[in-house]
Design brief:
311 residues, mainly beta, globular
Length: 311
């Protein structure tokens, strides 16, 4: 639910009455809410429908990144052999899903430094997709490519979509992320470069361009136990809407992700602030102080409202 915690301005009086709860997933972003879908009539204030679009694209991006990084780590961490049968998904993946995976060179083939690796991950078929552990449904194919360099400190992984759908939203485009290891601690930092389009079932097309940088800040010394992991996320991105309006989102206070919140069925994003800018209007979303809860505080024009987030 949304609870007003300060007086409502006259400008927003009619729109606040129609504001609705937006369910947000892992790393989801809530933007400015309004009841009117016509940008010309809202003077640049994002509508509730467009805020929902932002969160859906973010959820899809987070799921894809988790899948791709998991498959890359499987190759890097398995003595260059990765001896599992073709068609089985990563046994150590944090996302238990139905999928088939093939690799070139084939699984069981000894890899040598400098070998180009291609992994094809296929979810479902024409009869339906795969349901992730978080309830999202994916269908289609993701192809990832990288050079096997076990001693490289900044490997780059490329991935592309082939008829890929996330909750019936088609994703297209190329994305990369660079995984850098700190010189002394070998703690990884992942920079995700986004350049993609999302086509919704109703035909609307949205373009997302930007970067997100994620660094593990706790749990790195226990690689076999991921539930104690914590991440810090920074970055900024733009979203272009079908009418060519552009919204900028910037993480102005680093976001914190607590994997342990999954055990109590709460959103993983627990701290940090995102600032939104559009046509001279701005708003912020504050995720709190680090507790595993489903609340955030949305502020616009100096007025703050409690927002319920999560699945």
């Amino acid at each position: 639910m949304i609870k007003q915690v300060s007086p409502k301005p006259k400008l927003l009086k009619t729109t606040i009455m129609k504001t609705k709860i937006l369910a947000l997933g892992f790393f989801a972003i809530l933007s400015i809410v309004s009841c009117n879908r016509d940008d010309k009539e809202t003077n640049g204030v994002i509508t509730a429908d467009e805020a929902s679009v932002n969160s859906k694209i973010d959820i899809a991006s987070d799921d894809v990144t988790e899948i791709v990084e998991s498959e890359f780590n499987e190759t890097q961490n398995n003595a260059a052999i990765e001896n599992r049968s073709s068609g089985s998904f990563s046994p150590s993946s944090r996302l238990l899903i139905c999928a088939t995976v093939t690799r070139v060179p084939a699984f069981g083939t000894q890899l040598t430094p400098g070998t180009e690796v291609t992994k094809t991950i296929t979810f479902g078929n024409e009869n339906g997709g795969c349901t992730l552990a978080n309830g999202n449904v994916v269908q289609g194919t993701i192809i990832i490519t990288f050079t096997y360099q076990p001693t490289a400190t900044s490997p780059t992984i490329n991935y592309e979509f082939v008829n890929f759908f996330h909750n019936q939203i088609e994703l297209n485009g190329n994305r990369t992320f660079t995984r850098t290891l700190a010189a002394q601690t070998l703690i990884p930092t992942v920079v995700m470069n986004m350049n993609m389009t999302a086509t919704f079932p109703d035909g609307r097309i949205f373009t997302r361009v930007g970067t997100r940088t994620r660094t593990i800040i706790a749990g790195f010394d226990t690689p076999a136990i991921w539930i104690d992991d914590r991440y810090q996320v920074t970055g900024s991105w733009t979203t272009t809407f079908p009418n060519t309006t552009i919204q900028t989102s910037t993480i102005t206070t680093p976001l914190t992700v607590r994997m342990s919140c999954r055990e109590v069925n709460k959103p993983l994003l627990v701290q940090g602030v995102i600032t939104f800018q559009r046509n001279g209007n701005s708003a912020t979303l504050d995720y709190g102080t680090g507790e595993c809860d489903n609340l955030a505080v949305f502020t616009i024009n100096g007025n703050s409202y409690n927002i319920v987030i999560g699945n």
